[in-house]
TrEMBL record:
It comes from Siccirubricoccus soli. It holds the Pfam family PNPOx_N. Residues 162-197 are annotated as: Disordered. It comes from the Bacteria. InterPro entries: Pyridox_Oxase_N, Split_barrel_FMN-bd. Residues 179-197 have a biased composition (Basic and acidic residues). The lineage of its organism: Bacteria, Pseudomonadati, Pseudomonadota, Alphaproteobacteria, Acetobacterales. Residues 35-133 form the Pyridoxamine 5'-phosphate oxidase N-terminal domain. This is Pyridoxamine 5'-phosphate oxidase family protein.
Length: 197
């Protein structure tokens, strides 16, 4: 019984004689709980990629924040703050209807550990916990079911990037992105948007 592979994966593995390799990789590389090197990598990451899907709406998003914005909260659990966004709620709307997600942590040095995670996400709206994280509007908690490395073969080395100037400061404030000032958006911003004029 495989944790990683469904019948679609198996059909292609069998067609192209890959099942033995796939089974060996799952047996030797997949884990169900974070190892110390996983925690260190996740909690130092300034971004990750998030995959969600619901009702045929598939989405892949870049999620960024200051290093440490994603916190490992249990042996196979993590959470991150949701910051001010574009009011479309593509990822969070998918999570609300369909909790299974995928996450990819990918340092851009071409050498470091890279992780794929699968799990079930839930929105957390605990006001006290949210208030403790500058700029957070809500939290996303993930019960992680699969932890496995991502192959580095085709990942380019981009070196160290500078942090986004739009990250929330210690008081939770952040500069307004250009798109919020557009005449067709500015009057439509949510009533509690920090950049509404």
């Amino acid at each position: 019984m495989s944790h990683l592979f469904h019948h679609g994966h198996r059909a292609l593995q069998d067609r192209f004689d890959g099942r033995r390799v796939a089974d060996a990789l799952e047996a030797r590389r997949r884990v169900a709980a974070f190892q110390p090197e996983h925690v260190a990598m996740i909690e130092a990451a300034p971004f990750f990629f998030l995959a969600t899907a619901a009702e045929g709406a598939v989405d892949c998003s870049f999620k960024g924040g200051p290093p440490g914005f994603v916190r490992v909260t249990g042996p196979a659990e993590l959470e991150w703050p949701d910051y001010d966004g574009n009011s479309m709620y593509l990822s969070l709307g998918n999570i609300a209807l369909s909790p299974p997600i995928g996450m990819l942590f990918l340092p851009m040095d071409g050498r470091s550990l890279r992780l794929r995670l699968r799990g079930r996400a839930a929105l957390v709206e605990d006001a006290a916990r949210i208030a403790a994280i500058p700029g957070a509007q809500r939290l996303v908690r993930v019960a992680v079911t699969d932890i496995f490395p991502n192959c580095p073969r085709y990942i380019p080395g981009f070196g160290q990037a500078t942090p986004s100037p739009y990250l929330p400061g210690p008081d939770g404030s952040a500069p307004a992105p250009e798109w919020k000032g557009r005449d067709y958006i500015r009057p439509l911003l949510p009533k509690d948007d920090p950049h509404r004029q």
